[in-house]
Write a structure and sequence with these properties.
disordered N terminus; 20 strands; 29% helix
Length: 453
């Protein structure tokens, strides 16, 4: 058995990271041989299941029904015997029913508003907050942030986990945080320039909004100090990455997290930008067939399922993220041994079925971004006309395109969407600035179809 504390950098030293220099990722735990990582995961999985069984009635009942206990877990693959947890479990046990500790023993609550009904509430002990700050510091470091960097944090502060998650991670790293939150874009740009921010944290759509406003003001952010962008909290395409990198003059790094599991800091790309390293010392990742629920072999695309391995307040067993991805344990050039998953470009919930064709908004985005004479903003409007789905794609002309050219542009876009995505859309080309800009998570779809599908 491995002594957990001996290899867990999170608990080794004040500040969590040994040294923050160019090579500080040579943190033992990020380069741990995979057999030792697996042994650590199994030990922590058993402890998590035992805790959930003892302290959370829902998990106790489901484990009993499945006829499995923590002692039955002999190897990591045995995780497949455990029951799943889904988002509605949190709502059904609102607000604190899945917590493993009485709420007065916690240190913080976060919540996300659902589109319908009750919010999803998550809780953290002081220990959980400490782990989260360490994981976010590792995440920022993995992305290229360093001690002493000015980190401009445009993620929303408040109940959303993005703002505070980044904030405490950046402080833990030894960076200098500007707690900007979203909105007031012109002021954001002034502070990015005046403070010489090297790192920008935002949703990808808001990063693009910042770039656009700066261009309108005649400010060239590409010639400033920005070098690293951490973008996440909404799906985005490779085309969007290139657009952001070109317009802000930085390396755009994808990071992944969800509040039900912790918040940001669950997985992040390294500077190679070839998949996101999931922090396996704290989370167990699986990919399953979303229909049958069966685990899929490495490399096959399916739904990402995550089990927390160290969470105290809210242990999560086999949480179904609804995100579609593929895993690989192939060694990354950066030297880290933790598995990678492909960038998440679609969530099951985001998938639209249009006249029987499965469509992710990110597929539409990939057609639009970088196309001449188009601004990178769009909205899909779905309606039912008679018995058929009808899709209107609202796009925006770039500055300088004559209004007389809009019809041609619209036909060109419709042709490419049909060719590359396989659906027929009516394209409405709008003048520059006509589509509402996101200050947080972008709204890409307005589905006006009757709900009883
Ligand atoms: Zn790597």
């Amino acid at each position: 058995m491995i002594a957990t504390t001996a290899i867990d950098t999170a608990s080794r030293a004040p500040g969590g990271l040994r040294a923050v220099g160019p090579d500080a990722w040579h943190d033992d735990v990020e380069t741990l041989p995979r057999e030792r990582l697996a042994a650590l995961q199994l030990e922590r999985l058993r402890a998590t299941v035992a805790r959930a069984q003892a302290q959370v009635p829902l998990h106790r009942e489901r484990l009993r029904a499945a006829g499995v206990a923590s002692d039955d877990l002999r190897e990591l693959a045995d995780v497949a015997q455990l029951p799943f947890t889904v988002k509605t479990d949190l709502r059904d046990h609102y607000p604190f029913g899945l917590f493993a500790l009485p709420v007065h023993e916690l240190a913080r609550l976060h919540a996300s508003s659902g589109t319908t009904g009750k919010p999803t509430v998550v809780g953290y002990t002081r220990g959980d907050l400490d782990t989260w700050a360490n994981l976010m510091a590792r995440t920022l470091h993995c992305a290229g942030a360093r001690r002493g960097d000015i980190v401009h944090n445009a993620y929303g502060y408040g109940l959303f986990t993005g703002g505070l998650g980044m904030h405490y991670g950046a402080e833990r790293l030894g960076a200098v945080v500007v707690p900007m939150s979203g909105g007031a874009t012109e002021r954001q740009i002034q502070l990015i320039v005046d403070f010489r921010a090297r790192v920008l944290c935002a949703t990808p759509s808001y990063a693009l909004a910042i770039a656009e406003v700066a261009e309108q003001q005649g400010i060239d952010l590409r010639s400033g100090a920005l070098q690293v962008g951490l973008f996440g909290a909404e799906p985005w395409s490779e085309a969007m990455r290139h657009e952001i990198e070109a317009r802000l003059g930085l390396r755009a790094i994808d990071n992944y997290g969800l509040s039900e599991i912790m918040g940001p800091g669950v997985a992040v790309e390294c500077e190679r930008q070839c998949g996101l390293h999931g922090w396996e010392d704290h989370f167990l990742f699986e990919v399953i067939d979303p229909d049958s629920g069966r685990p899929l072999p490495e490399g096959e695309a399916g739904e990402l399922v995550i089990t927390t391995l160290t969470k105290q307040a809210l242990p999560m067993l086999r949480y179904r993220t609804r995100d579609i991805t593929r895993l690989t344990t192939e060694r990354c050039d950066c030297g880290r041994t933790h598995l990678r998953f492909l960038r998440v470009t679609g969530r099951n919930d985001d998938m639209l079925i249009v006249r029987g064709v499965n469509v992710f908004p990110s597929q539409i985005e990939a057609v639009l971004i970088g196309r001449p004479h188009l601004a990178p903003h769009y909205l899909l409007v779905l309606e039912r006309r008679g018995s058929l789905d009808h899709v209107t794609l609202e796009v925006e002309a770039a500055f300088g395109l004559a209004a007389g050219e809009y019809d041609n542009l619209g036909r060109d876009v419709a042709h490419h969407v049909k060719a590359m995505v396989g659906i027929t859309v009516d394209v409405r080309v709008l003048p520059p600035g006509a589509i509402a800009r996101s200050q947080g998570k972008a709204v890409r779809v307005r589905d006006l179809r009757p709900k009883e599908r």
